[in-house]
Amino acid sequence: MGLQIKQDSTDPARVAVQLEVTGMTCAACAARIEKVLTRAPGVMRAVVNLPMETALVETDGSAGPDALIRLVEGAGFGAEERASDASSERARQEQADAAARAEERRTFTLLVFSTLLTLPLVAGMVTAPFGLNLMPPAMVQMGLATIIQIVVGRRFYVGAARALAGGGANMDVLVVLGTTAAYLYSAILTLRAWPENPGHLYFEASAVILTLILFGKLLETRAKRTTTAAIRALTELRPDTAHRLTESGAIETVPVDALFPGDRVLVKPGERMPVDGRVLEGGSDLDESLVTGESLPVAKTVGDEVIGGTINGSGALTVETTALGADSKLSAIIRLVEAAQSSKAPVQKLVDKVSSIFVPIVVLVAIATFAGWWLTGAELDAAIGATVAVLVIACPCALGLATPTALVAGTGAAARAGILIRDIEALEIAHKVDTVVFDKTGTLTEGRPAVTDIRAFDRNDDRLLRIAASAQLPSEHPLGRAMIEAAEERGLQLSRPSDFRAVPGQGIIAEIAGETVLIGNSRLLQAHDVDRFMADQIARSFAAEAKTCATVAIAGHAVGVIALADTVRAETPAGLARLAELNVAPVMLTGDTEAVARTVAEELGIEKVIAGVPPEGKAETVTGLVEEGRTVAMVGDGVNDAPALAAASVGIAMGSGSEVALETAGITLMRPRPDLVADAIGVSRATVRKIRQNLFWAFAYNVVGIPLAALGLLTPALAGAAMALSSVSVVTNAALLRRWRAKAQ
Ligand SMILES: Nc1ncnc2c1ncn2[C@@H]1O[C@H](COP(=O)(O)OP(=O)(O)OP(=O)(O)O)[C@@H](O)[C@H]1O
Ligand SMILES: [Cu+2]
Ligand SMILES: [Mg+2]
């Protein structure tokens, strides 16, 4: 493999300093800063990244961050030290995790304490039917209840006070009102009757309610922590150290934070990829499942891109670093999923609004209940009991949990399948999608066309291909690349055109040996008054075989036609069949000719075809479909489809996972597989279904519970149990979503 492992050493003297630079306006600024930094004593390398506004400086340890900052400031810019990305991100996660665990432990201890104090209070209730009276004396009851009210109740009092101060009312307000009413009423009775025995007391009710709610909270935080664990696992994918190859070919093990873009790293068999990069040497199979959801190993050879966090198979790889830390794909994914999970869904905003109206209404109902019982001549005792039960059963905590728990579980399950959901809005819209617009080239097909036939009018096919491929040398278009490849296969000598211009959606215009060469479709020929008759005839015959044709014209005369074919992706038919199952209509949108598009569409069973659309017309076409009243998902392969992705109700970027696609598309598929589109719609439907179920049950429980409590059919303690149970069932129901699996394997 040509790799010689000479030594494994760490070089503590090498220090990487990251600076955040402000005030840069252009590349010249960046170059100036780079020069100033590079020339400073002790600096080995400096790289300034203009769009990221950062400078990465490698020093031998003698130039500290402060000195470097002064240098940048001396050049007229602002600078600040930036904490190293990978470690700060992980530290942040670990901190949050530790805090969550500590909170959980505290809640658990409190729960045990609260349960122990509550048990004597309920002992009387439980044993009474057996003719035993184990109820402790009223004063003891009051002592126990007071401790619970203060120690356990504290967090609810604080929460309620905070909500009221903010002008709102939440579940804590109801909990506080209910338990305080029960407690105070019992306390007053006890004190007034002392030393006699008072009548019926509600100490056990307030204690049981607080204990149960605490129990619900504990289950809730635990469930939440396990649903986010899938995402947290992603951050743990990145290794801490990497084997860097030095100029001399030695190998040193360095912290990942000390690497620079451009550094070459050695990845040994079985190790995790420390950075995003390109393979320079070697070959291996990579397990990308945790990043892209692809379950089969992916073969990588020289020139292929690798993603940090994936697992190397049995080969050793030398990789050139292209992105690290916060710039890496893994970081982008983590940020995306985290942002999605914490963004507020429109339905959640509605729930918040409902809750804020709901609480005052409940208080009114409670007052009415009390008045009703009182006025009909009932005991004060019964009136208080019913009122407390109303306040407790009305607590909307299940309502508050219904949406966020389902969303976290749904987006987490999707991410595991390689479906990244940027925001909750995308998830909510995706479930309504009735039309999916597919870009043809690169989405339904592989996007790697190959030259199949050459029809030179003078029968000199090689000459035609040589001219065409030469003219295409500067082209980025897949059709152009295919021509170059075909020419190279035939060993033809190519020469760069002296002038080159791409006409989007039509073709190219180049200058070769003083002659203008046009290569493209009918529209290009028409625009330049080239006789199209013969070329169109040929193109039509090839269209039946789903081959795309490009006509070559020299000095205004058509001289031949080159036919190219692209293969349909293996997963496309299954993907379309599953969309049909979901009752979603597919539409093909392409810049190719109607005839070719029709042939491919017929083969795939797609009825609606919109062909011959120039790149800038794609967004317009999508907007047109949206205006017809459809909910449109546009599936494209990234960068050039960005406007159309943005125009759709929801944009689905496929495959590339490039930054641009991540930013513009509501949903990104990490693998170039059209069948994941159905899964994206599927997970969205499953999540929205869960949210609706949860909301329904949470509401139903309140709607049924409140009248029962008002009529005195629910004891306060039972109401507390019912409330805790409803919260737990909502959280459990949402957690079931974690079992969702993509059908695309
Ligand atoms: N470099 C090129 N060489 C030859 N023909 C070209 C070139 N660029 C564009 N064309 C012509 O313009 C047409 C439309 O190109 P465009 O890039 O808009 O669509 P596409 O990528 O081929 O298909 P899709 O819209 O499905 O992605 C092509 O089918 C081809 O006929
Ligand atoms: Cu509650
Ligand atoms: Mg295209």
Automatic annotation (TrEMBL):
Places the protein is found: Cell membrane; Endomembrane system
Record carries keyword Membrane: yes
Keyword Transmembrane: yes
Record keywords: ATP-binding, Cell membrane, Membrane, Metal-binding, Nucleotide-binding, Translocase, Transmembrane, Transmembrane helix
Highest taxon of the lineage: Bacteria
Gene3D superfamilies: 3.30.70.100, Calcium-transporting ATPase, cytoplasmic domain N, Calcium-transporting ATPase, cytoplasmic transduction domain A, HAD superfamily/HAD-like
A GO cellular component annotation in the UniProt record: endomembrane system
Catalytic activity: Cu(2+)(in) + ATP + H2O = Cu(2+)(out) + ADP + phosphate + H(+)
Entry's transmembrane regions: 108-128, 134-152, 173-194, 200-219, 357-376, 382-402, 695-714, 720-737
Limits of the HMA domain: 15-80
Secretion signal, residue range per the UniProt entry: none
GO molecular function annotation: ATP binding; ATP hydrolysis activity; copper ion binding; P-type divalent copper transporter activity
Similarity comment: Belongs to the cation transport ATPase (P-type) (TC 3.A.3) family. Type IB subfamily.
Protein name according to UniProt: P-type Cu(2+) transporter
Phylogenetic lineage: Bacteria, Pseudomonadati, Pseudomonadota, Alphaproteobacteria, Hyphomicrobiales
